[in-house]
Amino acid sequence: MAIKRVYEPFSKTDGYRILVDRLWPRGIKKEDAHVDQWLKEIAPSTALRKWFNHEPEKWKSFLTKYKAELKGSAALDELLALLKQHKTVTLLYGAKDEQHNQAVALTKFIG
Record's PANTHER family (predicted)? Predict the structure, then answer.
């Protein structure tokens, strides 16, 4: 499983591309994004996203809260099923911060 900003150029080596943002990324057309599946339900809740606000000092707390949100969620089950179905999967995100975003968190949770 790889992660990539949705704004980076599409590559065939990305495999199955899953957008893990609740909101569609600004300024990118759906046909240009090459998204195979948009799993918006896997993204952090609006309240958690706004609280975190991509502030690195909140990262550890964000991970704990996000993991709690995902516990037992159908979206997480769906993601795990997609990972089993596809040899190569790339999680796409729109955030500018490449180290503190939900795609990074998901890779930590799934391993």
Answer: CYTOPLASMIC PROTEIN, CYTOPLASMIC PROTEIN-RELATED
